[in-house]
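Ticket #4471: structure output looks truncated?

Reporter: J.K.
Steps to reproduce: submitted the chain below (368 residues) through the standard prediction queue, then opened the result file.
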Amino acid sequence: MPRPIQAFVHTDALRHNLARMRAAAPDTRVWAVVKANAYGHGVERVFEGLRGADGFALLDLEEAQRIRSLGWRGPVLLLEGVFEARDLELCSRLDLWHTVHCDEQIDMLSRHKTQVPHRIFLKMNSGMNRLGFTPTRFRSAWTRLNQLPQVDEISLVTHFSDADGAKGIAEQIALFNKTTADLPGERSTCNSAGLLRHASDETVAADWVRPGIALYGSAPDFPERNIAQWDLQPSMSLRSRIIATQELNVGDTVGYGSSFTANVSMRIGIVACGYADGYPRHCATGTSVLVDGVRTRTLGRVSMDMIAVDLTPCTAAGHEVGFGSEVTLWGKASNGTVLPIDEVAQAAGTVGYELMCAVSNRVGFTQD
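Returned output as attached by the reporter:
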């Protein structure tokens, strides 16, 4: 039989989270962001749960082709636009909308031969300083695009750098609104954090929102708020099983480097999961894990293929655990108990995004 570690993609959770995004901005259309292979879930596996969105936003042409092959005929947006001139041919063939954030992309469009003009999302750099035209150059970029026969409607877009924190979005949204005040076209501003934390602000009103991480059941502003407070459900559960147990005496150590030493007699379980599966090596002793739905902790270093877990809380709760017992590394256990991915990510000094995207190819996926 295959190794017991498996990732589950929960279709009902995706639907729930999408509905939650709509509720946060009820009069706004929703892009479901499925970049990075749907944040590691797999485009094909999330499609059914997210097909209630108004459009799909992504990065790669290959992902766009996959969305179209699933039967989606609605809007598809390339968030970083095209990378070379020949990409525009596929945009025409697949009817893709695409972002324009630099002069080079306008140049490519000006030389592109097409019978059907393109739908463009013109990006402003309002303070993120990654992609986009600065406010002083934004209007001239809009004018250039507006003069091209290759361009149809131009929408206006920006991206918030601090929607999840204390700095907030007031400065960026004011700059965006001032610069675009008399320009026609639809607007798109909010990502997950902007949508959940700021969508009720009238100055942020837009035609499109672009939730990503919240669709997948991770809180965009953890630890200030968690998924329960945002009414989000985990869309991915990483589960494995105990493949061995050990009895430790006082003074016994666990794993490479003997980084954990038992100060009492205890029983531990060895789990078929390690950093080669995408579980963070930086998770030290004490990282939360569920065994048969009971919250317990990891012990010692994470190795390539295995981790050790403390079975003491399970015994205290009256659970008979041992070889074959279910272990939930993040997400939802079979009994419904939830271990938010954000907690595990925090223990590793990272964010839930990275854990989702880092699940390795040797982990089997199941859609439920």
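Triage note (M.O.): checked the attachment and the full token line is present. The domain at 11-216 is CATH 3.20.20.10 (TIM Barrel).
Status: closed, working as intended.
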